[in-house]
Specification:
With 48 residues, this protein is mostly helical. The chain is 58% helix and 0% strand. The chain has a domain of 32 residues.
């Protein structure tokens, strides 16, 4: 199932859980979900 492109915190959480259920590591699924949210317009700073 494709990820939801949104900047909402609840939908970011759903994307993370969906990625974890599909077999990704937790840290990797968080990174992917935050990247999708950033592309959707969320103002989430990158890790330095």
């Amino acid at each position: 199932m494709p990820l939801i492109k949104s900047k909402s915190k609840s939908l970011i959480g759903k994307n993370i859980s969906e990625l974890e259920n599909s077999g990704h590591k937790k840290s990797q699924s968080i990174a992917i979900a935050l990247d999708v949210a950033r592309k959707a317009g969320a103002k989430i700073p990158r890790k330095k």
